[in-house]
Every structure is written in C-alpha cells, then in structure tokens.
Amino acid sequence: MADKPKKPQKLRARLPRGLGDRGPADIAATRRMTDTIREVYERYGFEPVETPTMEFTDALGKFLPDQDRPNEGVFSFQDDDEQWISLRYDLTAPLARYVAEHWDALPKPYRSYRAGYVYRNEKPGPGRFRQFMQFDADTVGSGSPAADAEMCMMAADTMEALGIPRGSYVVRVNNRKVLDGVMESIGLGGDDQAGRRLTVLRAIDKMDKFPVDEIKKLLGPGRWDGGEEGKGDFTKGAGLSLEDAETVLRSLDAASEATDKLNSSEAYKQGRAELDEIGKLITAAGYGEDRIKIDPSVVRGLEYYTGPVYEVELTLETKDEKGRPVRFGSVGGGGRYDGLVSRFRGEPVPATGFSIGVSRLQAALTLLGKIDTQQQPGPVVVTVFGGEIADYQAMVAKLRSAGIRAELYLGNPKHALGQQMKYADKRNSPLAIIQGSDEKAGGKLLIKDLIAGAGLTEIKDREEYLKKQADAQIEIAESDLVSTVKTLLVKHGVSWSA
C-alpha cells in the first residue's frame, strides 16, 4: 500500500516579543500627532532631514573595549566586507555622522528635526519595546545656553500643542557637569571609573520609578526585582559605600546646600552657572516653573551627554481600562552632547537636542482621551451588481478624480449584494453605490447612506423607521454621482473629500 502523502505543514503566524502590528486607526493617530510636533518644531526654525535605519556600528559608538563584537543593546550583523552594521538605537548618533559627513555644506549652527523608528536589543516588558518611534530636534554648532533653553521651551510648547494642559506636564532641567562634580566628590572621577559612574547615573535615573531605599540598593550592592535575594532578576549596583550613596542622594535635593567638597569642584560650579543662565533665559521668555523647572534629580541615562540635560514628565494621573491608576512619567528628553560630532571631526563641536518618545506619548495621550482612536471612515464602495465591470470602474475613477476615496468591490462579482454590503460595513464605508440593470437602463443609480442607516434596527417607532429608511437610500441620476456623494460626505463630516 502506497504511503499517504504528507499534509504540508502550516507556518504559524507569530511576532517576536517586543514588536507590534499597527492598524489604520493607530497609524492615523500617529500621523496627526507627528504633524502637530512637526508644526511646532518648524515654528522654531528646524528643518527636516532623514538618515538610514542602519549605520556602521562604530559610527554609533557601540563597541566594547578590546572586543570585536558590538555591545549588547543593539541589533547588529556583518556585511559581505565583514564590517559590523547595526540598526540605530536612537536618532542622535546617526545625525552626528550626517553632520560630520556634510559639514562644509551645512549652515552652522545646523538646526534639524527627524522622526523614525529606533531599535533596542533589550529584554521586552510592559512599556518596553524593541522597536519604537522617536521625534528629535537638534542644534549643532552652538555652545550657547540659549540653545538648551530653546529646547526646553519647544518641549513645553509641543506638550500644549498636543492638548496637554499647563500644570499637567513639566520640563525638568539639570546639568551633567553638576553630576560630574558629585561623582568627583565620592571618588568616581577619571576614565577608569566610567563604568561605575554610568551605573550611578542609571540608578539616579530611576528615582521616579523606585522608592529611595531601592535606589540605595542600586547605588550599593545591587537590587533583586522580587525584593528579596534570589527573587526575580538581579541588577548589579555601583558598589558605593552607604556614606557615598547618601551624599549622592542629598545632592539631588534642590533645597539642600552644596558642601564645601562640592563647591571646590570646577565642573560643579560651571554646571550650576549654566543652569542659572538657562533659568534667566526661560524666565525672560515667560516660561514659569509650572512649565520648566531646574531639578537636580534629572539624569539622562546615555553616557554621551556633556552639559544641560532635560526631561519632559507628565505629572497628571489617570486610570487604565481596568480602573488602575496610571502615572506616565517621562515622555521625552535630551541634552547637550558636545563630544558626539567631535568623534568624527577631531575638533570640538557643540550640540544639543531633544527627543520625544512618540510611541510612549501616544499611549499616554490615548489614555487621556486626547487622541481619537475610533476607526476612521473608509472609502465609498462601488458594488458590482450584474452590469459591466468597466462601467463600475468608470464610476470609481470619477469619484477619485474628484478627490473622494473610493474603491470597486473586488471580491467575487457573483457575490450577492447583501454580502457586498457586509464588506462595506467592515470597511467602515460611509456610502455604497449600487447600479443594477433597471437603474442602468434608466440612467440612474442608488446611493446607500450607511451612516444614516446604521441605527435602523434600534428604532421602534414605525413612522420614524420608514423616514430613516428613506433617508438611508436615495435614487439619483448617474450625472449627479459626484455632487451627491460630496453633499452626503459633508453632511456626515467625513473630511477626506476634496
């Protein structure tokens, strides 16, 4: 007996963790949001630029010392020349390469903005994705504190343009030089202590997520996610003594006086002077502490920041779909990175920039009801009902030429009209066009108003039902197709018509 032929094995449709698909409503919401951000950025004089998703890994600065593989945290591969290439992990490092490469052709200072997806090869979790969108603005070639103040003002203006009221957000500002002074005071100055400094900075950066006792663990021996030894993942600490950890935490209190040890640090004094200057500039421009605030607890985690750093925090609380309280925290930030372009130029190049986490901010705006997540209107659907397909296609072409979104039903032309109407409903179509042989012979066609007819089944009163039913389907002359469709779309507030 011959062997039975094996059934072909189906491939299971699945996504890697940390990635997500996006539908039309989500994409439309992102577009509206990024259009608003773009308008604010351009009002400040920034112009668009795009860089590729991939760069040579050394341009991103992600090689570990004495190792020939890229640092964890980036997605990398080798090309046919055995050179390492990585997906960008932010939009700033690629900009530094672009500016250095086109230095002579660009106006200085160079002001640009760009939006796009970035990629992190990290363990995914709630609110932590491997692919997410950012929207950046940068000024390269200016060392003035006014450039930093301007970033903070633009951040505040962007939040309000997106519908976040004053008092519901704050732009918090600090200076890495102040933090460097703190590091020197606890013996973590110098290149040989760079790793521990970064661990301290990352610990401070979590001040808005963990209580002080947990931050002390991150500054000291380390922290278990489960709260007890052996429970959950372990995060290695900076190894500071209890006294040094207390010094770090005291320095984050804006109300506390600087110690003599701190005041002897040139970096600390210079950082404080720059913060004072930024404070004067934002005050002169009319931005109060309810919008922009000097805050010593702000730390941006990336090592390349060299001066002022800033973070936009949403301060209001709301509830998720299950009624649990949600506090959004940081939705964007940036700072001065005077050394990033210098890596390519071999000379000092001052730069400062600001980045909005679009994906995170969109999630916050959606929860706050500032973004319409309803399904957007679909196209007008022209049904196929026994006539020549070319005639129906001609109708679609007329509608499109008039700036109206329209499509021809491209399923089986033998499908019953009811099946085609179900398709139009699934497409969220506002109108459907019907022309059978009788209508064709009389030079007529029917327009089914799917918005007007949506609530018919819920109407109990017979007279009201008959009236609504009459409104939901009208017969018109073929020549009136475009004008009638436009009138109905305006009536229902469908805005994509010409």
TrEMBL record:
Reactions catalysed, as given in the entry: tRNA(His) + L-histidine + ATP = L-histidyl-tRNA(His) + AMP + diphosphate + H(+)
GO molecular function: histidine-tRNA ligase activity
InterPro entries: aa-tRNA-synth_II, aa-tRNA-synth_II/BPL/LPL, Anticodon-bd, Anticodon-bd_dom_sf, His-tRNA-ligase, HisRS-like_core, HisRS/HisZ
TM region(s), chain numbering: none
Compartments reported by the entry: Cytoplasm
Region (Disordered), start-end ranges: 1-25
Database matches in Gene3D superfamilies: Anticodon-binding domain, Bira Bifunctional Protein, Domain 2
Boundaries of every Aminoacyl-transfer RNA synthetases class-II family profile domain copy: 31-377
PROSITE patterns hit by this protein: AA_TRNA_LIGASE_II
EC nos: 6.1.1.21
Key words, A-Z: Aminoacyl-tRNA synthetase, ATP-binding, Cytoplasm, Ligase, Nucleotide-binding, Protein biosynthesis
Superkingdom in the source lineage: Bacteria
Recorded family membership: Belongs to the class-II aminoacyl-tRNA synthetase family.
Subunit organization: Homodimer.
Name used for this protein in its record: Histidine--tRNA ligase
Organism phylogeny: Bacteria, Pseudomonadati, Pseudomonadota, Alphaproteobacteria, Hyphomicrobiales
Gene transcribed to yield this protein: hisS
